[in-house]
Design a protein that fits this description.
The chain is built from 8 helices and 7 strands. It is of the alpha+beta class.
Length: 204
């Protein structure tokens, strides 16, 4: 190869290398840049939903208020990460069908943290006694749509047959003067859900 030909080839190579690196630069940036925000985190809540626990609901997808509003009660609860224990007990008590097919009901739904307040013995006793488990779960269900406006001074007959009471004002409410409503007025396709931080026990 002549000196002139070699010089020309080296010059072409010198130009080609920066151009090829420049073409890779956007791809490298896309791979190493900051990731997009996760869709979970602070919830985008529907109008009327209230309570400090609402901020922990997923923003989108299963368990978000938008998706829960389109689903039947137990299906909606199953997508909420705070209600996995409750859903397991509902399945064990074989009351999924009645909760999913009855319209305009209200569920005071104990969160996982609420169930964990019970002792291991109490939880075992419920799991080993389907009749008592069903009785306790039905005490959390009212066969009517309870609005936020009805919570102050409220008294409601549950599916179990006993009454429960609600009290409070603003965005701070209690059930039976013991359980706090941590996120309330969540709509599903056939029910309204109020997340509570304690398990409600029917009167003896």
């Amino acid at each position: 190869m002549s000196r002139t030909t070699l010089t020309t080839a080296l010059a072409a190579a010198a130009v080609a290398v920066p151009l090829s690196l420049g073409g890779l630069a956007p791809q490298a940036y896309a791979q190493t840049g900051s990731p997009s925000p996760s869709p979970t985190g602070t919830a985008t809540t529907a109008p009327g939903i209230f309570g400090p626990g609402c901020s922990t609901l997923p923003r989108t997808g299963a368990g978000s208020t938008a998706v829960m509003a389109r689903q039947r009660l137990v299906t909606a609860a199953a997508g909420n990460p705070q209600l996995s224990t409750l859903v397991g007990y509902i399945n064990r008590a074989r009351i999924v069908n009645v909760l999913d097919t009855t319209n305009n009901i209200t569920l005071f739904a104990p969160t996982n943290a609420a169930w964990n307040k019970l002792s291991s013995t109490q939880r075992a006793n419920l799991l080993n006694n389907p009749t008592q488990l069903k009785k306790v779960l039905n005490y959390h269900v009212v066969n009517q749509h309870i609005t936020k406006a009805e919570l102050p001074g409220g008294s409601f007959t549950t599916r179990e047959g006993s009454k429960l009471t609600t009290s409070g004002s603003g965005t701070t409410f209690k059930v039976n003067n013991t359980a706090d409503i941590v996120c309330g007025n969540i709509p599903t396709a056939n029910a309204t859900v109020y997340l509570v931080d304690s398990v409600l026990m029917p009167p003896s």
